[in-house]
Write a structure and sequence with these properties.
The structure is a homodimer. Chain A has 13 helices and twelve strands. Chain A is an alpha/beta fold. Chain A binds a DNA duplex through residues 28-33, 35, 37-39, 47-51, 53-54, 57, 61-63, 66, 81-91.
Chain lengths: 362, 362
DNA sequence: CTGAAAGCGCTTACAG
DNA sequence: CTGAAAGCGCTTACAG
C-alpha cells in the first residue's frame, strides 16, 4: 500500500497548480520548461532532491516523517516524474519493446493483453512493433527501438532473437521469444510445440475415421509450417496421403478460408475433412460449406486453430486447438522482468502446452 | 532520400563494434555506459558534437563533406541515438500516447494500424493504453503517460479529452479525439456520426418492410448509446415502437450475440429483425438463428455494425455499417502531428462518414 | 536515514 | 555553415 511512482496522481490537483508559489524557476536558465521537478518538491518538503528520489523509488529507506512531507508536496505541486531524465541518468528504462507479426490477428492481441497485464503490475510500459512477417521490417524496428534503450524485448520470431543475441555482451539486451520454444533453457522462450499441435489434429481426424484430410493454410509463416509438419507426420503414421493441401502465401482472412475450401474441392473432390491453420480460415470454410449446401461434418469435417471467440458457438461448433495466447504474453513478460531483475529463472524454456477442443464440426 | 535519424541502422555493423578504438570513455566518470555517443561520432568525424546533432536532425544545414564524414562515422561506430537524452534536452518526445477502450476489439486494432502507418512515416513511436471502458482507468493511464512527456494524445473518449484540455495552457498537450466528433473545430476530432449511422440502419429496415425491429447491444459505452439514439429516432419517425431492445452491460462476444437473440425472441416473439450494435453480436445472432432453424432474412433479418471480415462472406452475408476505422486512426495521427508542428489544420472536426453495406441478411 | 557533487547524452541559445 | 557553454531532470556513487 505504500505510495510508489505508479500510484495514480490526482488529476484535479495537477490541473490547477496556479496556487503553487514556485520559487525555483526564476533562478533557472532560459531553458526552464515550467515543469514541476524533483527540486521543487524537495524545496516544498524541506529535504534534498535525493531524498525525494528515494521516497519515490525506495520508500523504505526514507524516514516516515520525510516521506509524508514529500508526498504531500508531490500532491500539492502536481509533480509528475520525468521518465526521460530517469532513463538518461540510470541508463535503464521501464519500457519493453514487443514485436509481433500482425496486429490485425486476434491471436497476438490477446498475447499483448497478457503482456500488458503483467507489465502494468511491474511498472513497465511497452512499445509495440508490427513486423508484417517481414524480416527486413523486423531489423528496422529493432534498430528504431534500440534508440529508446528498452529494458528488454519480447519477440515472436527466432531470427529477431538471434539478432539481439549477437550484440556484444556488454550491451546485450534481454529478450524472450514467444510462441515458439527455443532450443535450450539458455534461450528464453515461452510457447508450445506447433508441431505437436498439428500432429494432434491429424490424430484426431484419423481416429474419427476421416480418410482424406486436407491441410489449408494462408500466411505461410514458420509457425504455420510447423503445424503442417506435425499434421503431415500424423497422417503419414496412419498411412494416409499427406499431400492433400492448399497453401496460399496471402494474408489470412475469413474470405480466404472460403476460397481455400473451393480450391481443395476442385483439386481433391474426395477430400472429407480440412485442417485450417487458423480459425479465421475455418470460419470461412464453414460459410462456404453452408453456401454450397455441404453438410458439416457429415460431408466435410472442419478443424481450426486457436479457439477464437466464434469457434465454440458457430453452427456447428468448430473443433479447434486451444492455444494459451494470453498466458504466453503474461509469462513471457514475467520471465523478461525476472531476467531484468537478475532473478533466478526456473525454466528458461517454458512449454505452456495446448488443448484440442473437440466439437461438432468433426 | 537524405539520411535521417530514422533510417535503418546497419545491424551487422552494430553487432561488431570491437574494431572501434574508442578513445573517450577513459576520460569519462565512473558512470560511463559504454554506449557510443554523439561525442564519439564527432571525434571520429572530426567535427563538434553539435554538428553531428545537426546532421541528424537538419542535414540541410550541414556541409555535404561534413555530413558524409559524420554518416561514415555513425556506420563505423554503430551509433544509435539516445532518445531519452534527446527528450530531456528538447523537452519534446517523439512518442504519442494512444488510449483505446479495448484491445480485444478488432475495430480498435484497425484504428491502431492507421495510427501506426501515419506515425511511422512521421518518425513517431506510440504507447498504447487500454481503458477497458473505465473512467478511473483512463485517468490513471493519462497520469502514467504524462510521465513519459508524450508529444500528444490520441483519445477515444470525450472525457479524456476534457481532462487534458483543463491543464494550464503552458503545459497543454495536444490531443485528438477519435471516433466521435467534437462540438466545434477547436476541439480536434476525427470520426463520424454514430447517431446518423444508427438512424441509417433504422431507415433501411423500415424501407425493407420490417415492422418489428429490435436493438441488441452489449458493452454499453457512449458510442453504442448514440447508435441506439439514432436507431430509435429512425423507428419513431416511421411510427414504429422503438422499445423492442435488449441491452446487456457485459463485454461483447460472439456468444453474447446468440444470447441476445434468444432473449429478444423470448421477450418479443413478434420481432422480425435485429440491429446488433456490432458485427460480433450479429455473427452470434446468425449462428443462433441457424441453430434454431430460423431462416435469415425471411424469418429474421440481421444487421450489424463495422463490417468486420466475416460480414461480407457469411452465409447469408450480413448487412452492416462500414466504418472508416483505419482512416480514423490515420487521419487522427495526421491531425495530431500537424498540430504538433504548428501547421494550419483545415478542419479540426473531420467527419469521415460511414456507408451502409446492404447484403443478404436483410 | 540524508545530502552535495558529478554525470547521463543530448539540444538550446548564442556567438561567430 | 560551425562550435563552446550551459542546461534538461533525474540517479549514481560517495560520504557522512
Amino acid at each position: 500500500m505504500s505510495p510508489t511512482r505508479n500510484r495514480p496522481l490526482p488529476m484535479t490537483q495537477r490541473a490547477a497548480p496556479k496556487s503553487k508559489p514556485k520559487s525555483v524557476p526564476a533562478t533557472r536558465g532560459s531553458r526552464a520548461t515550467g515543469r514541476v521537478t524533483i527540486i521543487d518538491v524537495a524545496a516544498e518538503a524541506g529535504v534534498s532532491p535525493m531524498t525525494v528520489s528515494r521516497a519515490l523509488k525506495t520508500p523504505a529507506l526514507v524516514q516516515e516523517v520525510s516521506r509524508h512531507r514529500i508526498f504531500a508536496a508531490i500532491d500539492k505541486l502536481g509533480y509528475v516524474p520525468n521518465q526521460a531524465a530517469a532513463t538518461l541518468a540510470s541508463a535503464r528504462s521501464l519500457v519493453v519493446a514487443v514485436l509481433v507479426p500482425s496486429l490485425t490477428n486476434t491471436v497476438f492481441i490477446e498475447t499483448l493483453s497478457g503482456i500488458r497485464d503483467y507489465l502494468a503490475g511491474a511498472g513497465y510500459q511497452f512499445l509495440i512493433g508490427e513486423t508484417g512477417y517481414d524480416r527486413a521490417k523486423e531489423e528496422q524496428l529493432i534498430a528504431t527501438y534500440l534508440a529508446h534503450a528498452p529494458a528488454g524485448f519480447l519477440l515472436s520470431s527466432s531470427e529477431q532473437y538471434e539478432i539481439l543475441q549477437s550484440r556484444p555482451s556488454s550491451r546485450a539486451i534481454p529478450a524472450v521469444r514467444m510462441f515458439d520454444l527455443g532450443r535450450s533453457h539458455h534461450e528464453l522462450s515461452v510457447g508450445f510445440s506447433q508441431i505437436r499441435a498439428g500432429y494432434a489434429v491429424a490424430r484426431h481426424l484419423v481416429e474419427r475415421g476421416y480418410r482424406r484430410p486436407a491441410f489449408l493454410a494462408a500466411q505461410l509463416d514458420p509457425r504455420m509450417m510447423k503445424r503442417r509438419e506435425g499434421f503431415r507426420k500424423g497422417l503419414q503414421e496412419a498411412g494416409i496421403d499427406p499431400d492433400v493441401e492448399v497453401l496460399l502465401p496471402l494474408p489470412t482472412t475469413v474470405d480466404m478460408g472460403a476460397q481455400l475450401l473451393r480450391r481443395v474441392l476442385e483439386q481433391h473432390p474426395s477430400c472429407d475433412s480440412v485442417f485450417c491453420c487458423n480459425d479465421d480460415l475455418a470460419l470461412g470454410a464453414l460459410f462456404e460449406c453452408q453456401r454450397q449446401g455441404i453438410s458439416v461434418p457429415r460431408e466435410m469435417a472442419i478443424a481450426g486453430f486457436n479457439d477464437l471467440s466464434w469457434a465454440a458457438c458457430a453452427t456447428p461448433s468448430i473443433t479447434t486447438v486451444v492455444t494459451p495466447r494470453y498466458d504466453i504474453g503474461y509469462k513471457s513478460a514475467e520471465m523478461l522482468v525476472q531476467q531484468l531483475k537478475g532473478e533466478e529463472i526456473a525454466r528458461g524454456r517454458l512449454d505452456l502446452g495446448f488443448e484440442l477442443a473437440v466439437r461438432e464440426s468433426t
